[in-house]
Amino acid sequence: xxxxxxxxDEIREERRKAMGRMSPKEKFAYxxxxxxxxxxxxxxxxxxxxxxxxxxxxxxxYGFYAALINAGVSDVSAALPETWAxxxxxxxxxxxxxxxxxxxxxxxLSDTDLSQYTMANQQKMAAMMQTGSLSTIVxxxxxxxxxxxxxxxxxxxxxxxxxxxxxYRPYFYYTDTATFPDDDYDPxxxxxxxxxxxxxxxxxxxxxxxxxxxxVTEDNALADAGLYAYLADSKYDYQGHPADVVLxxxxxxxxxxxxxxxxxxxxLGEQGx
Length: 273
Description:
Blueprint lengths: L6 H14 L3 H35 L2 E8 L11 H12 L7 E6 L11 H16 L4 E5 H9 L6 H4 L2 H7 L3 E5 L32 E8 L4 H4 L20 E4 L7 H10 L8
Parallel strand pairs: 1-2, 1-3
Antiparallel strand pairs: 3-6, 4-5, 5-6
């Protein structure tokens, strides 16, 4: 050992000399044997950091988020929401540099399916309601009524203009608040509402009716895409009547006018409404 050199210095000196005698191929093999783990870790860190920076730089808040629950998406209709989102963003003049539009047809909810996926969707719904990021909910009657009973939706009288009320009143969906549970109701709880016989389009049959949704008729873009087509089967009848597709405005939505534009975009005001 040279005077003043440590063992580590000597090892590094010998390694340097050995490297000097190696061919390029041998040097690569040597590097790979001794430093491949370091290389993998470095590459992984760089990729993770790059991904984080990209996501942070490109992140956008939702300018509009529509949850189409239990839509019954097929292979044909699976790609439509992305097209609709782009088109609706332009139609509603939502700034694409600042906001993202998302039309979610993947969400399924059921009292009989208590899988982790269903529970995750329920938690997602609750979180989006709390943050105000959920613009509109579209669902079949059974699911819609559960959330109506939990008071998730704005009374339409409070959020629509006089002109809009007149236009959509024939298609209002009413919930009877006299049937609401006495305590706070969590829509994730299993409560059999199907035993009631209620016509949600006829407030005269209710004790305390409140309009909280708009019934989507058959002649519209949703039907054209085959969404909710399964409801034609009578086994999905609910509370003594055929199931409908209903759209509501969550109470946490600060821009209900965008939901009205969404109705117009889907041609609900022109084709059938």
